[in-house]
Design brief:
The N terminus is likely disordered. The strands form three sheets. Strands 5-7-6 form a three-stranded mixed β-sheet. The protein is mainly α. The N and C termini lie far apart (about 55 Å).
Length: about 700
């Protein structure tokens, strides 16, 4: 356990036993008598500003008092603060709102840029990562910003004057709010918690370490051998877990040599299982110097014949539950913020009630509506017929609902590498790609000018700007021989994020509404781009007759990732129920959860029980309950895609939707497509699609 996290957890455990607490580490009490003074203070503000301000005064006083601590001053100091900073007329309130919006954008943008620079060497493929690089990556320059805003009074002014709404209020009343009201609600939410700087720093440190662990978790595929010593994968192929391993399974559907493709898929499944259960030898991770038989789990020094004469046998010790130690560290760090989040006292609550603004019960119901749908066995039977064999567990990543392609995976890699030998080449081609998506040359140039392409050390990601004078960043992996198809596919996905990030910041009425309701929405918009990757290469054209196949592909992909999300959700509940667990205990629990979800929803279709593949996703380790965004995003993407197909305007629809901004999910979706978020559209479309093939 890292020292900072360990020290803070010790403080929390002392709190539970009633021991004395350091004021800066746990929520301090309000100054004596503060609560009792609020009614009189309300009357004083009404006397100063009129009866029309009573409700605002009452709410603002209670919001600010809830986070006012003894160190901020006594009850009289709070009263003086309220009398000074309560905006009792519209002109003053408008000026306050305008100034806060402008400066909050600057705070966000400059801190965002500084964090980006601190993580530059660990995030980008710029050479070896040194130990001091990790120190910079784990440093959060904004760790003190939140507390400084409270101590300076900036946060209290916002809480005193703008409504801090609950999820229930936003869901019930938000449909009647105007844009300014939504912007005010988002402003107040910025100060809804008061988390100490050392807690923020511990969370940033744990997340940075998890990111680094995942970014370097590569498997050298040429070094995998079967029982006959055969190598199935080409020289130099290095695949990141889980993204590239999963995508390599997908790439082998429809291969000319079906027997070899099937052998590759089975081998990758075995690699994944060993990663999840931690029987993978530590020496094979990110190491081209050893050969590994994942079936027998044996390791020898690398060589054309599988060994080097006279060389000592490599250490075959399994990875020592490191995967689950890293996950546990992120949980322990996240838990440090719990006492400072009374409205959402667990990371689970913060993810669903505050980040997604969709209650966890509703998310779980949507996911289970997909994985338990009677459509699942029907689609599975269709896949079985198309494959000409019984389904195997790795077929959760079946990628065959596409028109036959004249290009093999190797040919696609060669096409992409020739076109994009470097990240700079992809950057230079952005205007052309955007025009192909339907943007005018002027709009394409505008977007491209706001996007910077960089080579990722990991699989890739998009990083938004934070303020209008900065650019978004598109990161994707570029191998020494050039970008391969997997890297290109990810790059097109990230381009979707960058376009949304640019429009929802630079072209929106209130920067306080920057972005979209939650991560699932930006994932959905990115999926729309990603689905057109071959078309952008000039290798495929829009095919209305292929809509049914695309719908089946959407359904099967959502069926797969919904199970993964259910595992992620259950693992976080288990960690909260067992906060003293060891990495080994967490590993056993995660394996059992993954198998239980598989046995309930997947075993009836695949005919195999106790499969652990649903636990392979790297997001589970480094992204703190992020995975539910993917299936929700899949459902949203289908709704958005239907709207795009209805109008035939990809660019115009994406721009229109991006500019709706950060309002509640259902309200956003109604404005974008005319219906709330849900699984119904995908299930209905899948039923119709199946009728074309059964």
């Amino acid at each position: 356990m890292k020292p900072l996290i360990a020290a803070l957890l010790l403080t929390l455990s002392c709190a539970a036993s009633g021991a004395a607490l350091a004021a800066q580490e746990l929520p301090a009490m309000q100054p004596a008598g503060l609560e009792a003074t609020l009614p009189a203070l309300e009357e004083a503000l009404v006397g100063m500003h009129g009866e029309a301000q009573r409700e605002r005064a009452r709410r603002g006083l209670r919001q600010a008092a809830a986070l006012w601590r003894a160190e901020d001053g006594d009850a009289e100091a709070f009263a003086e603060f309220a009398r000074t900073y309560f905006a009792g007329d519209q002109e003053t309130l408008d000026a306050m709102f305008t100034r806060y919006q402008y400066l909050m954008e600057r705070f966000s943008g400059h801190m965002n840029k500084l964090v980006q620079e601190l993580r530059r060497h660990t995030d980008l493929d710029l050479g070896p990562v040194e130990p001091f690089d990790r120190l910079f990556a784990g440093f959060d320059p904004s760790a003190h910003l939140g507390e400084d805003m409270f101590r300076s009074g900036i946060a209290f002014v916002a809480l005193l004057n703008f409504p801090l709404t609950t999820l229930e209020e936003r869901l019930a009343e938000g449909g009647d709010w105007d844009r300014r009201q939504w912007a005010e609600a988002r402003l107040a939410q910025s100060f809804g918690r008061r988390v100490p700087a050392e807690v923020n720093q511990a969370i940033a440190q744990a997340n940075a370490q998890a990111d680094q662990y995942i970014a370097e978790y590569n498997i050298y595929m040429h070094n995998l051998v079967n029982g006959d010593g055969e190598r199935l994968f080409p020289q130099g192929m290095r695949l990141l877990a889980h993204w590239n391993l999963r995508d390599e399974i997908k790439a082998n559907y429809g291969a000319e040599d079906a027997a070899t493709a099937l052998a590759k898929q089975r081998m990758i499944q075995r690699v994944m299982e060993r990663i999840v259960d931690q029987s993978i030898p530590a020496v094979v991770i990110n190491n081209p110097a050893v050969d590994w038989n994942p079936y027998a789990n044996t390791v020898v020094a690398a060589g054309d014949d599988g060994s080097i004469p006279g060389a000592a046998a490599p250490d075959n010790t399994p990875e020592p539950d490191e995967r689950y130690r890293v996950l546990l560290e992120t949980f322990l760090a996240a838990r440090l913020a719990d006492p400072y989040s009374p409205a959402a006292p667990t990371l689970i609550a913060r993810r669903f009630d505050e980040n997604r603004e969709i209650p966890e019960e509703r998310v779980a119901a949507m996911l289970k509506a997909v994985v338990s749908s009677p459509l699942v066995p029907r689609v599975a039977q269709l896949i079985k017929t198309r494959l000409g064999r019984p389904l195997e567990p790795f077929d959760i990543w079946y990628n065959g609902f596409k028109a036959p392609s004249p290009y093999s995976a190797a040919e696609l890699d060669a096409i992409v590498a020739q076109r994009y030998p470097t990240a700079e080449a992809f950057d230079a081609d952005l205007p052309n790609l955007l025009v192909k998506l339907g943007f005018s040359p002027e709009r394409a140039d505008y977007l491209a000018a706001n996007i910077v392409v960089e080579p990722a050390r990991g699989s890739g990601h998009a990083w938004g700007a934070g303020m209008r004078s900065q650019k978004t960043h598109l990161r994707t992996r570029v191998e020494p021989g050039g970008m391969n198809y997997k890297g290109y596919n990810i790059a097109i996905h990230e381009l979707g994020h960058n376009v949304e990030q640019t429009f929802s910041l630079n072209d929106i009425d209130y920067t306080l509404l920057e972005g979209v309701p939650n991560t699932a929405f930006t994932e959905a918009l990115a999926f729309v781009f990603q689905a057109r990757d071959l078309e952008l290469l000039g290798l495929a054209q829009p095919d209305p007759a292929g809509d049914a196949l695309r719908t089946l592909d959407d359904f099967w992909g959502t069926f797969e990732i919904a199970g993964v999300a259910l595992v992620d959700m259950a693992v976080w509940h288990w960690m909260y129920d067992h906060p003293e667990a060891t990495p080994a205990e967490l590993k056993d629990a995660t394996l059992q959860i993954a198998r239980d979800v598989w046995n309930e929803y997947y075993a009836p279709v695949f005919g195999m029980r106790d499969v652990s593949l649903l636990g392979i996703y790297s997001h589970m380790i480094h992204s703190q309950l992020y995975l539910p965004d993917y299936p929700i995003g899949g459902l949203i993407a289908h709704q958005i895609e239907e709207q795009v197909r209805k109008t035939g305007e990809v660019a115009a629809e994406i721009e229109r939707m991006s500019r709706i901004g950060d309002i509640s999910p259902d309200l956003w979706m109604r404005q974008a497509t005319g219906a709330p978020v849900g699984a119904e559209a995908l299930l209905t479309a899948t039923e119709l699609a199946l009728e074309k093939f059964e």
